[in-house]
Amino acid sequence: LWAIFTSLPQPIMAAPAYLFVETFRPFLPVGLGLAAGAMIWIVFSELYPDALEKVRHGSAATAVTLAFSAMMAFQMLVLAH
Asked: Which structural domain range is residue 75 located in?
């Protein structure tokens, strides 16, 4: 029952949210770029140092390189289609 009550505002706010997004569409790449930069910052300031404490330096660097390569390959695949 509480799930129904918590979901009631969603349709009410859908139209204003859509209009807000349409109005600021030109700024969307900037916002997404800032979000991506924040995620990369967290990876290298929080996650990577923790990984270095638990595994060898070479293993952590290899994992980061492979993950980045897989992400770039997936992006190229998506953009190609």
From this structure: 2-80
The total number of structural domains that make up the chain: 1
Cα–Cα distances in angstroms (integers) from residue 81 to residues 3, 17, 78, in the given order: 38, 29, 6
Contact 55, 39 (CB under 8 A): no
| Angle, alpha carbons 28-32-33 (nearest 5°) | 115
Confidence tier at 42 by pLDDT (50, 70, 90)? very high
pTM: 0.58
Give start and end residues of each alpha helix (H) in 1-81: 2-7, 9-23, 28-42, 48-54, 57-80
